[in-house]
Fold each of these.
Amino acid sequence: MASTSETSTDSSNDSEKLFFDDVDKHVNSLNEKYREKTVIKKDTYEKILIALLLEKGKSSQTLSAKFIFWCRNNFLLSKIAGIDVVCCAKSKKPMYLYESFYTVISESHQNISHVGRQKMLAEISSQYSWIPKFVGEIFLKHCFACQVRKPVKQQVVPKPIISLGVMTRLQIDLIDMRTRPDVVSNDIVYQWILNCVDHFSKFSWAYPLQNKSASEVVKRLRELFYVFGPPRLLHSDNGREFVADVIQDLKVLFPGMDFVRGRPRHPQSQGCVERANGVLTDALGKWLTTTKSLNWSEGLAPVVYGINTRVASATKCTPHELMFGQKPGCDQEFWKIVQESNIVDEE
C-alpha cells in the first residue's frame, strides 16, 4: 500500500510540474505587456495589495501611477477573518495566485467528478477570480483520470448474426420520411420507405409506402417473396406494423418461414438494416440534389441498384454478384462488344 501511495504522489507531482511548464509556455508566448497581468504571481499580488492600501491622492515611490490606476479599476479589498484579501472588482470573488492554480483547479475538478471543460470552468469562476480559461484547459490535459478514463459499465459484446446463404435471413425496417413526404398526386403521398436487406449478400430492396400499416407492409413483402422466394427467417424490430395479425398471415402463405423479432430499443440487433437505412437515405439525398427532383420515390430504384452493384465492405464483392452469381448484364464484356460494334438487332 505504501508503494502505491508513493507512486500516486510522484505522478501528482509530475503532473503539477508539467502543468506549470505549459502555463509558463503559454504566458511567455503573449505580448510582454500582458504577461504580468494575465496571471497574478505572489510578487504582483503584494504590489496590488500595496496599491489598494494607499490613500487616495498619495503616490508610491515603488509603483507607477498607471499601475495603481489599473489596480483600483480591477480590484478591491475585502476583509476575510480579519485579513485583507484582494478580490475582483467585477465578480467580488477572491483572486487566486498563480502558485495556487494547480491546487485550486484540482480540488474544483474533483468536486464535480471530473466533468468536462465548460462545467469545470463554471465551477472555478463561481468561487474564484482571475484564473484564465486557458489555465483550466491546460489542467485537463494533465488530469490523469480524465486522460485514461474508462466507463464503469462495460458494453456487452453482442453475438454475431450468422447467415448461411442467400435469403436465409431477411432484415426489414421502416424509414420515416414524414418530414419530407413525396406528393405524387392528390391520392398518392408517400411518407415511409420499407427497406429490406438480405443479411448474407447485403442485397437490398426498397419500397415507398403511403403509411406504415400492416396491410401496406405485407403487400410489398408478398411482391418480394413471390419473385425471390420467402426467406428462412424474417427479422424485424418490435414495431406493431411487423407483429400485427396480417404479418402472421405470411406464414400461412409461406409456412416454411419463421419470424424473428429484435430486442426492443436495441438497434444493434438490427445492425445490418440500420446501417443500410443510413446508406440509403444518404444516397437518396444525393440523388435528389443531382437530379434536382422533388420525388424521392422515383429515386429509390436507381439508388438501390447503385447500392447493390457496388462492393460491400463486409463481403468484398457486390451484393448483385452474391445474389445472382454474376455481374450485372450491362457490365458483361459481350454487351460492351455489342455496344462498340453498333449492333442494334440480332440479324
Amino acid sequence: MFDPKRYILAGGTVVVALGIGFVMQQSPAPHSGGDASPAQTASLDTRPDMPPVAQSGVTTDFGAMGLSGVAHTSANPEPRKEAQAPLAETPAPTGETELAAATPDVKEGPVLSDAGPEAVPLADACEPTMTATAAPAAMVTLEISVCQPDARVTIHHNGMMLSYLTDAAGKAEILVPALSSEALYIASVENGVGAVARAQVADFADYERVVLQWRGEAGFQVHALEYGAEYGADGHVWRESPGNIARARDGQGGFLTMLGDPAITDGLRGEVYTFPVAAAEKGDVDLSAEAIVTEGNCTRDIEAQALQVGDSGELSVQDLVLTVPSCEVAGDILMLKNLLQDLKIARN
C-alpha cells in the first residue's frame, strides 16, 4: 500500500523542463493499521537559492507548464538493478506512405525512440500486418503479425511510443489508448519494416487522458486523486489500484493503463490515465507524476515525456530530464508537481 508521510525541505540538484524545486520526505518508523493521512507538501518556488533550470519541449495548449517542485519521499520498494539506457532519436519505419502522419509535430526536445539490439531477419516471404479495432472507453485493440517469434515491435501513435515482443507465432495482441478520434497506429519492427492501421474512435471526446512515457526501469509512476481523494484511499488511482474500464463507462471514475513489455529491459513504457469527462460528476482530478529512486537509476539522468490533450483537442508535449539523488536514498520517491495538468470536470 502507499504510505504517505510528512514532507520536509532538503537540498538537491535536479534539471527539469520549465523549472523545478526539490523537497525531501523523511521515512518515519513503519506502522500498522490506521487510516493514511494526507501528505503535506512544501513549495520551493520562491527560494532565492534555486538552481538554474533548463527548458525543453513545447506546449501547444496549456501555456506555461512550470514544474513547481519535487517532493522526495520514502516508499521502500524492491530496488531495481537494470541500468538506464539513454533515449535517442530513431527514424520511423520506411516503406509505408503514411508513416510520417504518425509522427507528432514537436519542434524541439528529446524524442523517445526504440533503438533496440541488432535486428533479427524476418522471413523473406512474409510481410508484417496489423489491424486496429475500436474498443470501449476510447481504447483500440491492435493485432500484429510479423512472422518472427520474439521480434521487438514499437507501436507509434500521436507521439506515444511503446515496445512489445511477439509470441512464438510471431503475433501480438495489444489493447492501447487512442489519442485522437481518427487513430493512426504504426508497428515498427526491429529490422526497419512495419505496418500501418487506422481506427475510428467514436467515443474519443467522452474521455480525457494523460500519458507519461519513458525508457526501461526509470521508476516513473502516475497518480490521480479523484474528487479530493487522499493517498491510499478510494479514488486514488495508480498502478496498485488502477481502476477499470467498466468503472469509467459507468461514470464512477478513471482507470490507469500500464503499457510496454517489462520483459524488454530497455524498452519504451508508459502509464496512461483515462477519465470519463462526459459521464462523471462535476469536480476535480489532481494528477501527479513520481519517480522512485532505485539502484538502477540513482545518480543518473532519467528522461520522460508527458502527453496531454486539452479541451481544444490539441496535444501538449512536456519533456522531462531529472537527475536522481544518490543510491543512499534508494527506495525514496521524487514527486514531480505540475508535470501533469489537473482535470476540471464540468457537467453540461
Amino acid sequence: MGEPICLFGEGPFERRERLKQLVASRGPVISQEEYSSSEEENNADEEFYTVGPKELYDARKFLVDYSLSRARDRLSHAREKTKMSTTQLKTERYKLYSKLEVIHIVSIYETTESFASQVGGDRAISCCKFAPRNSSILATSSWDGTCSIWTNPECKLKITLRGHKDRVGTLDFHPLSFDSLSENAANLVSGSSDGIVNLWSLNRNEPLAELKGHTLRVATTCFHPSGRYIGSSSFDTSWRFWDVETQQELLLQEGHSKEVFALGFHPDGSLCGTGGFDSVGRIWDIRVGKSISTLKGHVKDILCINFSPNGYHVITGSDDNTIKVWDLRQHKNIYTIPAHTSLISCVK
C-alpha cells in the first residue's frame, strides 16, 4: 500500500486504526476467493487454441471431403440393409455363422499342429500383421530393432528392414500395399523405443524417411484409411499426425495425463481413437482437432482400441482383463466382456 508498517511510538491499536483509514480511503477490497472466481469466469469465456500450419488446414479440408463421401456410402449400405426382410437377414447371418462354426471346428481339431513356424528375430517378436490386400505377405517387428517381411505360408524371408536403434514395438501396412501402390513408395510404417517413426519401401532395407518429434517410446503407428497420413502414439503423453508425402508433423495432440498407448482411425477417416495409461479413452475429430467423446470405465491401462465398420461402435482392451464396447451415439459403455484372465493387447 506504500505506507510504513509501523510508525515510531505506534502501538497495535493505533496501527490497526491507521490500516482501517487507509483501506477506507482506497475503496473496497476484493477477497482472494472473489478474485479467483472472477479469473475463472474470464478464462471460461476465452477460447484457447494453437495456430497450426497451412498444411494442417489443407489436410483438414481433404479429410472433410474424404470422410463425408465414405460416410455417405456407409449409410447408404446400412439403409439397404434396413429394407431387407427378416428372412433375408436371417439367411445372411446363418451363412456367416456357418462359416464361423466351420473355422471354429477346424481350429479345435488342428490345435495340435502348427501350420507354419519361423524364427523372426534375435529377440521377442512384438508385432505381426498381414498385408491388407494380400494375405500371402506378412510383416513382423522385433525387439532386436528390425522389421521383416515374409511370404505366407512358406515363411520365407523377403527382406529385413534395418534402421531403428532400439526395440521396434509397432508396425502397419499402407491400405494399398501389395495392391496398387508402388514398391518404391512408403508401404510400411514402424515405431520404436528410440522415439522415431520410420517409413519403409518394399525394395530397400533402409528407411525412406525418419519422422522425428516424439521424445519417448512410440507405442503405436497407424496409417490413415486414405493412406496419405500416419498417426503415432507415444509415452510422451501425446499423439501426432504426420503427412506421408512431405514427412511433416501436422498435429501434436495432447489430452491424456499419462502415456498414450493405443491409437486407431475411424473407417470413414474422420475420427481418431486413443487410449492411455490414465485408463481413459478419447475420440478425436481430426477434421477440427477436438475431443468429442471420453471413454471412462476401465480401471487400468488401455492397450488397444478399434472402430467397428458400422461407424458408431468402438472397442477397447485393457490391462484390467476386460474388453469394453462403446456406443458413440450414446457416449457410453454398452457391453463389457470379462472373458480373459490376463491383459488384452489387441482387438479387431
